């Protein structure tokens, strides 16, 4: 039931991406190809799904209303992957089982495609503000996402992640990286969906707690899977973190403690949803199970 | 008179930049340092100056009103320089007489600082929309700048510029590069200032024509200076375009034709300003002379 709904929304999002990322015949068409390559390279689409479903749960309206906003969030996520994979950064050759963007289009084009995706995400949001009667909601949701994505959020997390590859790191630093590099944009997807859906103050509090738990759970699971998964399941080189001598939740706390922490976060997430009186949070609960059980 | 006013506005903008780019004590402080390094590295500040003065001329109000918006435009310009200078792109060691960002902070941090500046520019704009009573004007101005900066604007121009380094190019392609890589954001600074100032349809037409002429003039002058200037005057390696076997307005059309074209554009720009009835366009006229006479 959950998996079917998840699949349906994912298909809906990917159809929208297909439409938005057609390659025009133009002098700069290669950058559109490069953007399209990474936007259509699969992935769980967890961020746009969270934005869409949170909007629907809170507002009672169709999630289709905010699909353009949700796809803009996915553009930001995708640009961050394209830049993170660069030789000057994490130097990854594979992502989701396919050669990384710079391996296909070159480092220069990958940098520009990433820039292009980030720019297009915000251009899309300005367009939504301009065209909507809910200007204040769209503005607040956009500001939330921009703040989560910037130097005090996702980019800040990546900065500290890069620095920490070079030296020892305490668990506070590791928490900072997880919180910012991965969790903030995931949280922001939920929060922006809630803003667009018109959540009450109390609902927002519950959803923020849920979002925080989901966000960290997501990163810990990634680190666990890197340790125990196979390359085939992961769609990238398994054990790359260890090969790169990279500190992760698992290398710092050990596998057992990491699994415990993931379970604890599940409980917090479920309890937070329990406080959403009168709302159908079944999908968001299903997501918790999915994240804990997921293979890749 | 013009130079004094230009200097005053430049100082005002740079004071604002100083305030906005203080380096906080934080785990990711190095990315703030890197962003600050490039934002305070000098330059003519032509884009924010154009936005501020156009706003003032059109609205009759103080240019100080929109300084945050103008600085956000400068962030977009600066991020594009930081990324363009990367070894994977133009591979420049000096910019404005100082080592380029990646030479000081490394390629990884330069990529992230660029991303951070682009993100912060739009985060600033969302904040302005949220906090202003002129939401529609700020939204339209932001959309204008985002559209000029993206894959159908500045990024698109850089893409074609990179491709053209690798093969022969006709003058149509060169025009495309000039138009998009350099002119669009300069034009957009004028147009967004005009939007924020509440320009009439007729005023907007004149300012667009002026902007188009100024934008192209600016690029042609850069190419001319690369040919005839010294490294000291330029603050970067003179003749780098030739060294890199890069096609420019000068290498395609020759020095004499390029100078002729620059003069022709001056006349168009002045004529456009002549149509701005009842507005004090003295500063914008002064800018035309300044651009034609400027050394770097």
Furnish the topology, listing elements before pairings.
Two copies of one chain form a homodimer.
Chain A: H1 2-20, H2 29-39, H3 46-59, H4 67-84, E1 94-95, E2 98-99, H5 101-105, H6 107-131, H7 135-149, H8 154-164, H9 171-197, H10 201-228, H11 231-234, H12 240-243, H13 249-253, H14 255-274, H15 282-293
Antiparallel strand pairs in A: 1-2
Helix pairs in contact in A: 1-15, 2-6, 3-4, 3-9, 4-6, 6-7, 7-9, 8-9, 9-10, 10-14, 14-15
Pfam family, one (chains A, B): polyprenyl_synt
Family (chains A, B): Belongs to the FPP/GGPP synthase family.
Cofactor (chains A, B): Mg(2+)
Would you mind describing this structure in some detail?
Chains A, B: One of its GO terms (cellular component) is cytoplasm. Chains A, B: Belongs to the FPP/GGPP synthase family. Chains A, B: It catalyses: isopentenyl diphosphate + (2E)-geranyl diphosphate = (2E,6E)-farnesyl diphosphate + diphosphate. Chains A, B: Keywords: Isoprene biosynthesis, Magnesium, Metal-binding, Transferase. Chains A, B: One of its GO terms (molecular function) is (2E,6E)-farnesyl diphosphate synthase activity. 2 copies of one chain form a homodimer. Chain A is 74% helix and 1% strand. Chain A has 296 residues and is mainly α. Chain A has one domain (2-293): Orthogonal Bundle (Farnesyl Diphosphate Synthase), CATH 1.10.600.10. Chain A has a two-stranded antiparallel ribbon. In chain A, α3 crosses α9 and α9 crosses α10 (201-228). The longest helix of chain A has 28 residues, at 201-228. At the A-B interface, α2, α6, α7 and α8 of A face α2, α6, α7, α8 and α9 of B.
């Amino acid at each position: 039931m959950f998996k079917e709904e998840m699949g349906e929304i994912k298909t809906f999002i990917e159809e929208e991406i297909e439409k938005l990322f057609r390659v025009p015949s133009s002098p700069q068409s290669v950058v559109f190809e490069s953007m399209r390559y990474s936007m259509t390279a699969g992935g769980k689409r967890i961020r746009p799904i969270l934005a869409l479903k949170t909007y629907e749960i809170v507002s009672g309206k169709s999630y289709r209303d905010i699909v353009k906003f949700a796809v803009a969030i996915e553009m930001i996520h995708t640009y961050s992957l394209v830049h993170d994979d660069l030789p000057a950064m994490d130097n990854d050759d594979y992502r989701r089982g396919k050669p990384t963007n710079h391996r296909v289009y070159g480092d220069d084009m990958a940098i520009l495609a990433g820039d292009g995706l980030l720019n297009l995400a915000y251009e899309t949001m300005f367009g939504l503000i301009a065209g909507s009667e809910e200007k204040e909601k769209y503005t607040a949701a956009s500001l939330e996402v921009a703040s989560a994505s910037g130097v005090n959020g996702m980019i800040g997390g990546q900065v500290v992640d890069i620095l920490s590859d070079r030296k020892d790191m305490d668990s506070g630093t590791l928490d900072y990286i997880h919180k910012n590099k991965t969790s903030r944009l995931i949280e922001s997807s939920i929060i922006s969906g809630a803003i667009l859906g018109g959540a009450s103050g109390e609902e927002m509090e519950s959803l923020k707690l849920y979002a925080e738990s989901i966000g960290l759970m997501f990163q810990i699971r990634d680190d666990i899977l890197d340790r125990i998964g196979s390359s085939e399941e992961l769609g990238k080189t398994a054990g790359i973190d260890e090969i790169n001598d990279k500190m992760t939740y698992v290398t710092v706390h050990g596998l057992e403690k990491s699994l415990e922490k993931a379970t604890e976060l599940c409980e917090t997430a479920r309890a937070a949803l329990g406080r959403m009186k009168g709302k159908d949070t079944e999908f968001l609960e299903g997501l918790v199970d999915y994240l804990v059980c997921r293979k890749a």
